[in-house]
Each structure stands twice: as structure tokens, then as C-alpha cells.
């Protein structure tokens, strides 16, 4: 087993007993198999459960796997309308377990892997998606100055910055030439909209499987996986939801392509976008195709990074990483189509 798969239970238990009030062993540890970027573990103690997220060991791309940023943003959101897990401790000392990590509450809820939510009825499905919409609008309405996050992202055009950053990340982890990806990067630069002044907190990977909901209700209990969060442009998060829904309706694709949404009580893309705009008190969104294309591009770059780590032998789940790598050209092509369609 690689170091990403295991934790030294004794070391973790001894360290946290001094850092978290009421933390007492014996400690049991289980690794979550979902998620590719930051290895995540369930910590079971006799009285309560916690979750530990760590940076993977080894040589990492600059600015990737920023667990300290995850800890900071979730701590800042504790008293807002955005539901997050309670943060307990950030350890920046690599010598404890080999890399930086943080510990938070374990949220005992339901995680919906698929947006079709096959085990729910139509009313509950509609409620879950509507609460997903509510939380997204609430996230973009957070006063970043009031919660101490005004410096959480640099000023300037968010898309310019992000396209530049992910293009560099993609080139750093490139394993073969993907013509559509090269073309998509060129067109995103050429068609970039002017900065409209919107500057909000953005999650960066907002989708239903990064959220925990009530076990017997539609309300969101916590938004998870904040590694890509920053100060940016809100339509990137909104388009990320729509991008996910354009994927195949399979365990792998986790989308809604070809699904009769009305029969399942699910909204159309346009209905979801309109409800979001209504909640935020803003008008219709122009040039939505750009925001959609941007998300396809960024996901392709992220998947390429996962593939590179899998090939290098330091991925959280190497076999899954190699499987995901096949989708880089698919996402790049979808990005081009989104630009064409506007």
C-alpha cells in the first residue's frame, strides 16, 4: 500500500488528543475511496467521528492540494447561510504524518452520487436540487470582507487568471497531445468576456456529489471539497452544475444526458439558472456558453493531473485515475461545442 492509503493510527491519536477538546481513543481509521486529490480518512472514536484530509505525499504541482485553504474557507463560513462541517484543527507540520492535514467534524448525512437520485421520489429529488440551488446562491452572496476572506483570491479578471493557471497545470502534467484541448485553450483566451466587476467566493467544484444532505430530507448539511475555492466569478460555479448535467447518466458520468427530467421531477438547465438568478436578484446571463466551456476546460486539466499522478504512482486511487484520464479529450471536445453554441 502506498502512503496515501494509510495513516499511523497511534501517531494521529496521540497528536489530536492534545489539539481537539474531548478527543480520546481508541482510534479506528478508514480511508474514503471517493475523491482523487486529497486523501481523506474517517476517524472513529468511542464518542464521536471526525474526518481527516491530508495533502498527498511526494512532489506536487505548485498551489495544488491546498488543504490549508480548505480549512480556512470552511472556518470562515461557519456562521453564514452556507452549510459546512465544523473545523477543528489544521496541522501545518509535515513531520507528524508526512504532509499537511486538517480535521473536521464527520457530517452524518446522505451523499447523492448521481443527480438522478434513483432511490428518491420526485418531490424529494426536486427538493434536493432546489436546495442545491439555494446554497449556491447563498455562497455567492457571502460578504467576503465580513467573513475575512477579502484576500482569498487575487484581484483582476478571474477567467483570465484561471485559464492561465489551468493551462500551465495542464502543460505540466501533459502526457500526450490532445488537439481539441490545444484549440480550446486558444479560443478561451480569444473569446474571454470583459471583467464585469462581479467578485464573489466560488467553490470551484460545485456538484451534488460534493455535498451532504439530510438522510430523510432535502436540505444540504454541508458542502465539501473546497480545494479549488477562491475569490472569483460566480457564473463559473453555476456553469459547473450545468456542465455536470451534460455528462452521461451513468455511475461514471454522473450526469443527466438523455434523461427525461420532467418525469423525475428535475428542472431543466434554464429553470435552474433562472431560479438562481431570481434568488440573487440578477437579470438573465449573457454568453453562458463561455462559462460552460471554461468548466469543461478546467475539468479536462484536472483529470489530466489525476492521470499524471496515477502514471507516476502517487495518486489516491491509481486505477481510477487511469480510467478518468481517458476523458480528457471528451471534456475538451465538449468545451469546443459549448463555445460554438454560445
TrEMBL record:
SUPFAM superfamilies associated with the record: Protein kinase-like (PK-like) (SSF56112)
Domain Aminoglycoside phosphotransferase: 29-251
InterPro entries linked to this entry: ACAD10-like, ACAD10_11_N, Aminoglycoside_PTrfase, Kinase-like_dom_sf
Pfam families: APH (PF01636)
Superkingdom of this protein's organism: Bacteria
Name of protein: Aminoglycoside phosphotransferase
Source species: Neptunicoccus cionae
Amino acid at each position: 500500500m502506498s502512503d496515501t492509503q494509510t495513516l499511523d493510527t497511534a501517531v494521529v491519536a496521540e497528536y489530536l488528543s492534545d489539539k481537539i477538546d474531548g478527543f480520546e481513543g481508541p482510534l479506528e481509521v478508514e480511508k474514503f475511496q471517493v475523491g482523487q486529490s486529497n486523501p481523506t480518512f474517517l476517524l472513529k472514536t468511542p464518542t464521536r467521528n471526525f474526518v481527516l484530509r491530508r495533502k498527498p505525499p511526494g512532489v506536487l504541482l505548485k498551489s495544488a492540494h491546498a488543504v490549508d485553504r480548505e480549512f480556512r474557507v470552511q472556518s470562515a463560513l461557519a456562521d453564514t447561510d452556507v452549510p459546512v462541517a465544523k473545523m477543528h484543527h489544521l496541522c501545518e507540520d509535515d513531520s507528524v504524518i508526512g504532509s499537511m492535514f486538517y480535521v473536521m467534524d464527520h457530517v452524518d448525512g446522505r451523499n447523492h452520487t448521481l443527480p438522478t437520485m434513483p432511490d428518491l421520489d420526485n418531490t424529494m429529488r426536486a427538493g434536493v436540487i432546489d436546495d442545491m440551488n439555494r446554497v449556491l446562491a447563498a455562497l455567492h452572496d457571502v460578504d467576503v470582507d465580513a467573513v475575512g476572506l477579502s484576500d482569498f483570491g487575487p484581484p483582476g479578471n478571474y477567467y483570465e487568471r484561471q485559464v492561465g493557471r489551468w493551462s500551465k497545470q495542464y502543460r505540466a502534467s501533459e502526457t500526450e497531445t490532445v488537439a481539441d484541448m490545444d484549440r480550446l485553450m486558444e479560443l478561451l483566451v480569444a473569446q474571454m468576456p470583459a471583467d464585469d466587476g462581479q467578485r464573489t467566493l466560488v467553490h470551484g467544484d460545485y456538484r451534488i456529489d460534493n455535498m451532504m444532505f439530510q438522510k430523510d430530507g432535502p436540505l444540504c448539511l454541508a458542502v465539501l471539497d473546497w480545494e479549488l475555492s477562491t475569490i472569483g466569478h460566480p457564473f463559473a460555479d453555476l456553469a459547473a452544475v450545468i456542465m455536470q448535467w451534460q455528462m452521461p447518466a451513468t455511475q461514471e458520468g454522473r450526469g443527466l444526458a438523455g434523461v427525461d427530467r420532467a418525469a423525475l421531477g428535475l428542472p431543466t438547465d434554464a429553470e435552474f439558472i433562472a431560479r438562481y438568478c431570481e434568488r440573487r436578484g440578477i437579470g438573465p446571463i449573457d454568453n453562458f456558453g463561455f462559462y460552460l466551456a471554461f468548466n469543461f476546460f478546467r475539468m479536462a486539466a484536472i483529470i489530466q493531473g489525476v492521470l499524471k499522478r496515477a502514471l507516476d504512482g502517487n495518486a489516491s486511487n491509481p486505477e481510477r485515475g487511469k480510467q478518468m484520464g481517458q476523458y480528457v479529450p471528451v471534456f475538451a471536445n465538449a468545451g469546443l461545442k459549448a463555445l460554438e453554441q454560445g
